Amino acid sequence: MTSLKAHELLTPPCRLIDQTDLPRVGFRGAHSAEYLTARGFTLPDAPNRATAQADGSWVARLSQNEYLLLGSPADQGQRIADEEARWELDHRAHYLLPRQDSHACVLLSGTVIAQVMAKLCGVDLSFPAFKPGAVAQTAAARINVIVIHSGSVEAPAFHILWDRASKDYFDGALRDALEEFGGVGLADRA
Amino acid sequence: MNRLPAPMGLLIQRDQPLDFSFDGHPYQGLQGDSIASALLANGRFLMSRSFKYHRPRGPLSMAGQDANSLVQLPQEPNVLADAHALSNGLAVTAQNVNGTLDHDRDAYMGKFSKFMPVGFYYRSFYKPKGMWKVWEPIIRKKAGLGVLDLNFQPEYYDKAYLFTDLAVIGAGPAGLQAALTAADAGAKVLLIEQQPILGGSLTYARFDIAGTRADNLRRELLSAVQQHANIQVLTEATCNAWFTDNYLPVIQGKRLYKVRAQQCLVCSGSFDQPVIFRNNDLPGVMLTSAAQRLIKLYAVKPGKRAVVLTGNDDGYLAALDLHDQGVDVAAVVDLRHAPADQALAGALAQRKIRCLTNSTVFEALHEKGLRHVKGVDVRQITAQGQVSDKGQVIDCDLLCMSAGYMPVYQLLCQAGGKLAYEDSRAEFSLSGLPQNLNVAGSVHGRHQLDNVLADASNAAHDIALALGLSPAAARTPLRSEAQVNFNWPIFPHPKGKDFVDFDEDLQVADIVNATRIGYRDVQLVKRYSTVGMGPSQGRHSALPTARLVAWATQRNISETGVTTARPPFVAEKLAHVAGRAFDPYRQTPMHARHLQAGAKMMPAGIWQRPAYYGKAEDRDACMQAEALHVRNKVGLIDVSTLGGLDVRGPDAAELLNRMYTFAFLKQPVGRSRYALMTNEHGVVIDDGVCARLADKHFYVTATTSGVDRIYQQMLKWNAQWRLDVDVANVTAAICAVNVAGPDSRKVLEQLCSDLDLSAEGFPYLGVRQGTVAGIKARLLRVGFVGELGYEIHVAARHGLALWDALMAAGKAFDIRPFGVETQRLLRLEKGHVIISQDTDGMTHPAEIDMGWAVSRNKPFFVGRRSVDILEAQPLKRKLVGFSLPKGSVQPLEGHLVLNGPDISGNVTSCEYSASLGRIIGLAYAGIDQSTPGQCIPIRVEGGIVVQAEVVQLPFFDPTNQRQEG
Amino acid sequence: MKIMMCPLNGPRNISEFTYGGEFKPMPDPVNCSDAEWADYVFNTDNLAGVVREWWMHTPSSYWFLAERHTVTDEILRTFDPKELFTHRVDFNTPQEIAG
């Protein structure tokens, strides 16, 4: 039996890393898959799935032909920034989406992050309902968010993306939700 | 303090005394006590006065299910004393009292009950007309409950989702058993219990003569539940409603859990029902289960000498409990002819407890001032609701009553469950529940303990199968069981005070009279008499009311039914519903700069925008100064909130051609065009500009509030049209500023090395891509404010740098930022409409002189047919410019334009213009009023009518030389 | 709160969706009568039974169609509009399209 009454459960603190300034970009169109494959990306085989790349980048598939590329901290997102820079509109149905500018992004990790998100979001983000590699496009704290499970079963981690103009708003909502779980470390508060 | 020895007192900690006070008297209770149990342990039964007659009342249910125990806490009125945990230093007072609880000056009210029938207030105080206003404050004071603490500081309440395979509501024997069976099959189970401990009736009721079964079973079930990893338990948690697809609001402390369960099993049990006789509301008269709760949970002896009035065998078992704990049981009065289990009669006889069958209490006798029960008048039952003329009086200070059980059906009926009354068992049963909602235990009509367990286990078995799991054991057959409800436990007394509803002081005659007046429907009886409308929401009155209405209208009880059960199940605080409020807002990348510059921020949709720069009290001065500055020098405004759509692909122009009224196929690259959108009704819904950046790429702006809807509409239409085009909403990704004023070109020249900014090189309505201060930008020559101006659109990440660069470069030209209100004034001077401010839900293009923006040289646009139909009809109204001399009363938005005795329109925008030295505005007016030079009467604040002159638009720079220069 | 099955995102709270109106064919906007057009624009059938409706999953801006029973509020089926709209629609020649 587990009791939910004891909110003061001792849990390891969550980590919250702001990745808003780490490069990311989106592509959409009938030719996007072909293009990205040619550029060396491994693509998820179904919508709302995400695949880690060997260099630490992530590719999330948001619909039949829309992809979201998250830069890797290892190269400060250089590979993805280059992809954004080299794109141009040509005869192909392959359109760039300025995801670094349209969305804010954090990486939230820790064993209780599903419970943290349950204070904001109506989709069950706990295992096994939401497995590593899963993507949820949903609403949290009354705004649209994209949640990508980029961790593992043992060490869950979510990339959370939302409207960049609401950065301040959702940051506040997220930190408030984290409060009862010990908040986030000082190092992450920058 | 007088407490029974252990093992009585499951909830209390004997070594942790708590001091508290009630109406100023100090008392001591124990950790684990409720306020009510602590008071009763101190011999204090009188806890409140009834709502209408101020009759003394004590606890009825000891389970938080009645209004008798409502008390006042310093910061909170209407607290249930039998549900609220005692804490040290708690200062409790009585409420609804005139004077003191013990000496209530309004106690005389009961004597006038004959003259205060149902509907008395409404019938007596409404005439003559206007009198209610006089009487209302007096009556409200008499009738009010509790006092609010207006200095109360809000506390932190929040909400959280909770996801589970199975939610079990109620952790009595059924709930515990079902949770175990389902969890054993592999289901993730959430067990929700209102009380602080698990076990339900196992914690207080008696199921066998030896009195050992409940405790043994409870230990057994609890240890299994506690060891089970699949079971999550919420105690002191109330499931307050059932919503579609098992969405369950569960309140625990200051949190509202929004439980989402694939399957839901309601094991809510049943409510012990009172017997109706004269003075059945006296302190010392309580439900049998209440007396048992006092003994078992709190080790409180409920009386010295008891009479048990019962309609089933449970009363006999309760008598054994009382006897075991040293209460002298004077008699068991059985409404029936004999107990179902004869062994019980033997057990009473063995203990020399008298048993009177086919009898009832006809009247409870009381001490002076109705302070406490002191005896009962017991009569033989001669027919339904009728008794013998003479009876016997038995002295007692405790009367336990139980007429049977009412299923706790509230959540189930909210889910659409239907109640049917089974005459053979005198009991309601439920049917018609939605899929994935199940029921087990006594709420399901199973009362015999083995049947309860089997029923729960069977329900869990079926649920496991529905979840795709494999239950371990097969279903268990149920045995037949004895009837638990006495079919007519209502004994009206000629002198009344035979209460059906304790909350509202309603007597048998009140209900019967309601039907005589013509209210046959139980819903109407409720609304007329207020039965079931009090805090206990009919938990004890619904069943007798149904029986009385059925009897009085000669129908059966199934036909009569009970009134609708609506959420919430128990009273909930607004704080729980409001919780931690989510109130999203959006800020532009330059937000911090606006604050630093002292901007007065205003909401624009959910965006936060600068209205003007300065203090609120200087609004007009700031705005006028900013406007003149733009007209004479140069200003900078953050227009990042403007909607932005990237429309790309071979069919980009075709899509815009269909969505907007103008023509776009032949629009040259490097030019922008005004874009007006109508809906299928031909009503103007949005506008912006379409900038052609490349043959297959348009950048389209839309209004701040409209862009999301416009984007969605484009996607919806193209889901049908299947054009080869991609639409991306880049509103947040792109931020923008407008540099406007005669010196704007000079400012920009400082920062643009790769662009020809000359009037010829970059003409009005031109579009360029280049760099501004090294930042990649889209530049649009626009004229919204009527000056030479450039909209500069850049990626959001560069917004702050762009702003700073422009402010720095503009310093030499005395650049200053201006706000939204200033921009609105400037565009008003130019007569430019703002869609949704100067248009409404009826406006079509011709009414705002936008016929020029509608192209007929294309086969289709959304709204085309409606626009054609509308324009073929004579125009009824028109948006016109008007003007008033400086110093006139300034009309406000929404003020009416009159045409003789009729209303012909309204003001949509109005402001004083320092550039023009006049008040100017836009308003809808009748066609016959719309010629420049005519006067339109506008009715302003206070009903004054001002005569405004209709003026040709635009007010300012009619040849547009400034913006096109 | 009701749950609706999004063909792209799976079962979600109904609050994640935006209602897009009844699915009904648009009469030929050029050749139909004023009365037919007005009927299309202003009137709905308010049928007691199974209706087809437009719905959008708001967070992903994904439009789809639902078949819903208006009496029981049961959603029988949700599906991608490609099932019904298989080819490009043009307005050069009068024809009936859906709306």
TrEMBL record, chain A:
UniProt protein name: Sarcosine oxidase
UniProtKB/TrEMBL annotation, chain B:
Domain SoxA A3: 495-579
Domain Aminomethyltransferase C-terminal: 877-957
Domain of life of the native organism: Bacteria
GO molecular function: oxidoreductase activity; transaminase activity
Domain GCVT N-terminal: 590-858
Protein's UniProt keywords contain Membrane: no
Gene3D superfamilies: 2Fe-2S iron-sulphur cluster binding domain, sarcosine oxidase, alpha subunit, N-terminal domain, BFD-like [2Fe-2S]-binding domain, FAD/NAD(P)-binding domain, Probable tRNA modification gtpase trme, domain 1
Keyword Oxidoreductase set for record: yes
InterPro entries, A to Z: 2Fe-2S-bd_N, BFD-like_2Fe2S-bd_dom_sf, FAD/NAD-bd_sf, FAD/NAD-binding_dom, GcvT/YgfZ/DmdA, GcvT/YgfZ_C, GcvT_C, GCVT_N
UniProt keyword terms in alphabetical order: Aminotransferase, Oxidoreductase, Transferase
Residue ranges of domain FAD/NAD(P)-binding in the record: 165-417
Homology family: Belongs to the GcvT family.
Protein name from the UniProt record: FAD-dependent oxidoreductase
Species of origin: Pseudomonas veronii
From TrEMBL, chain C:
Bilayer-crossing regions: none
Annotated GO MF terms: sarcosine oxidase activity
Pfam family, one: SoxD
Signal sequence region: none
Domain of life: Bacteria
GO terms under biological process: tetrahydrofolate metabolic process
Record protein name field: Sarcosine oxidase subunit delta
